Every structure is written in C-alpha cells, then in structure tokens.
Amino acid sequence: MHRRLFGRISAAAALVALAVPVSLIAASPSQAASTCTQSWSPNLAGGQSGLTVGCISDVADGNNKISIGDHTNAAWHRGAARTVTGTAASGSTALTVLASTPLSASDVGRPIGGHSGIKGGTFLKAFISATSGTLSAATTAAVPGGTTLKIEHTRSRVLLDAACTLAGTLTSTSAVFAASDVGKSVSGGPFSRGARIAVFGSATSVTVDDNPSVAGNQGPSAICTSPDTITIGAATYSPATSTTAVYTETYHRQIALGSPAVAGTDGGSCAGGVITLIAGGGGTNAGDVGLPVVFKNSTGANADATARKVASVTASTITLTPATCAAGATDAVIGLAGANAPPDGSQMTRLIGQLNLNPSLVATLDDCNKNTYDGFGVVGKWQNPGAYVIPATLGSPLPVSQAQIVFQTSVINFAGYVTNATTNLHTGAAMALHNRFVFPSLPTSLSVCPTGGGTTTSKVAVGLQFDPTVQSATPSVPTGGGNPASPTVRSLGLVTGAQGVLVQLTKTSPLVNTNVTPAACTVLAATAVPTNGCGI
Fold it and tell me: pTM, whole model, 2 decimals?
C-alpha cells in the first residue's frame, strides 16, 4: 500500500495521536481471538458526539468484514431534499418558481434555502399555486431568476416569531402548525430538554409539555422573550412520554437493484416505472413523493438522462413519473442531499491499525518472519448517495445505504457504508431503528503477512474513528437552515445511562460470525459535568 500511509512508524505513537482506545496498543498474544473497545466523545446526551471503535483479531480468523451497530440513542445524518428554480424580490415573502420545478401543498412547513438572500430557518408558509408560494420570513436580498433553491422534505423547522406562556401555549403567526407536529421536540428559549408538542390547537397555536415525566402538560419555567427563535422537530418522540427519539421522515438513500432482486444483495427491483422493495429494502415514506429519482449503472454513472421523480408510494413500492425504468441500471438514488448533509469528499473518518505488513505491498518493509508490527492510518471521506466512488473500489454497496465512506490509497480503494437497521447484530432480534456502519470487505487479508514459515505474528488491530462533524469540506456545511433533525454526521439523543454499540467481525465467505459486544458507555445527563468520552 501507499508508502506514506503504511511505512514503518511507531505504531503506539501513531495510535495514541489518533485517540484510539488504549487496549489497541496494549494488545498481547494472550488475548482472546477477537476483542473490541469503544469510546464516545463527547458523551453528553443531547449533543454532537464522535464514535471510536477498536477491534483486535487473529490472522487465522480471516475476518475481513466489520459491521458496527450503533446504539438507538445515536442519530446519524439522514434526510432528503429536492430543488426548485425560483426568484424573489428583496424584502419580500413572495416566492415564484418555474412550472418545470413546481411547488406542492405538501411543501408547506418545509425549510427552503440555497441563496444568501433567504434567511436561515426560512420555510414555505403558504402554497398558492404550482409556481408561487409565501415564505415564512422576508428575504434580505433579491433572489435572481434562475436560482436553484433546495426544499427539505421535512416539517422540522425554525420559528423566528414565537411567543409562549407559563401554561405551555406556544404561538407563532408563521408556524403553520399541524396535527402531525404532535410529538416533535421544542427547543430554545425557556424550554427544557425533552420538551415536545403535546396538543395541536390551530395553525398558529399548540400546547407544549415541558416535562413529560410528570403527569399532565407542564409549562416552561418562564415565558418566551417575544419574538423568540424556537426550533420544532430537532427530534420526534413516541410515545408522548418517551425520551427515545424516533425518525419517521424520508431520507436520501441508494437502493441496489436486481432483476429479480435477491435478499441480502439487492434492495429491490424496477419494472414498468415501479420500484418494488424486498425485505430489507429500506421501506418508503410519504415524504418520498416529489423527490427526484436517478438511476445509476455499474460504473456509478447515470444510467440515462431521463428526469424522474416519485409520484406515489405504498409500503413496498415507489411509483415513478415518467413511468419508466432505466435499462441496465444497477442502483436507484432517491432524493438529493439536504443542506445539513456533509458535502461529498468531506473528511470525517480515520481508519488506523497495526499488523505485520506484507513487504510485497511496500518494498522497504522487512520480511514477514521478522515479526514486526507496523502502523498505518487512512482518512475516510463521506460520499452522498449518487456520488459513490465505484470503479476499483473494494466493497460493493449495501442493498440500501445513506452514505459511502471511501478510503483511497495508491494501491487500492475500499469503502464502508452507513445504513439503517432494525435487527440486533448478534441475535437477529427486532430492535428500534438504528444506524449501522458496514465494511463489506476490509483488505486486511491483502496486506497482512500469513502465519507460518517463521512468521508468528497473529494479531490485527483496527481502529475506526468517526467525527461528529466534517473536518474539511468545500463548501462547508451551512448553519441555521436545512433540516433541524439531520445531524451533520452523528449526535446523541436524550437517553442517559449505560449504552453500547455492537460489533460483528465476519469472514465474507463463508459467513462465520465473531460477535463482540464492547463495554457499555455511560451517557451523562445534560446537567452533569461534561466529559470527553467513555473509555478514552
């Protein structure tokens, strides 16, 4: 592999510098065949948090697939958007769009942005026609004709004109509240963590329960400083008293297609302009309607030039308009990346490790039978659906994924994928929706020295560090707009106490599972003294 990445360095120094759990450094041949550790930093509930997982296995295990099932309290980036072409005068709330990129009544309450003249937190307040609507806030500068604007497919939004009472009545002339807002979090101003909309009153008024753990609706400790800025829907709770957030909105995703689709390999198939999802195909959502659909071929390029969008959905089908499928398509991409999505190419992951590196890859290394461990590190870059790096990349995309994390070296490119899961990695038992990161094929077998013939080194240590926000990206992720419920990379919900991720080390073929449960991490309440992590 690349000499600068895999050259002989002090493995301990390299791993310490990258904040990998100490157990990776202290590994000894007497350890069990597979051990894993984890750390979350920071680990305060209700905030952004990184994740570090380190695992040690034996060469003889042949493990070259890693799957990390995050806790249900962790929220990774998701959400979806579409674009319209519009214009607006300076100081106006009137929005005009082209008939070719129409508005719809379902866009009411959805955030909109994409031009500096549109304030962060602006959403569509009223639908007038397919070519005109009303913004929730006046523009600060003219939006020229032909400007591409992004509409988020969510009703999570920011109110800039809120008022509230001690009884918990929240009012806003622009809010366009709806019954579907019940359960959405209310944050900012005098509201406590975990506050949520309990009762829908009207388009301009709702009742907020500031403390669901107490019977009845509790108001905030003070009134809002009117006009106050209040965020609706950074999280959604169900049932009403729960501290566990749920996510019921649509999300940007890539679906692998087969004809016929094969469970475990494909997410679905397409025929006659209808994408039919199979078990594990990711499901559908009413918010999918109106999202663009782009078909990809095996090289990652667009399969054709036809502009399609979602016309309607059922629990397992997505009907397109125009009602056609692209010939030879291997994947379908639903939606566009939202404003809070990490830009393609954003650095947000580091893969680090120690192993006896095979000199056939780097000629300056010593022979395998010297039994010396070498350290390396590779940066992982976020790629949104539709922008996956496919050619010459080891690790085929999963049946359904919401991001690719690609690692590129001069020798080989390899990639992992972020996806949703509803089953326990260890037992297959049903559990709440959570995110999973999967390396379909990690090239350790290509780089490690095989044991035998005087080579006795048998350990492979791998560490993965995911940052809560991107470290480098152009353009940077905007703030103050987009979908409040979509973290940049990863954040924690309000649930406190002992929690842990699940790690599965497997051989790609035949499937042999080595399930490892890292030690639980105690997530602190917001009022506790902050800490940088669990186990670092």
Answer: 0.90
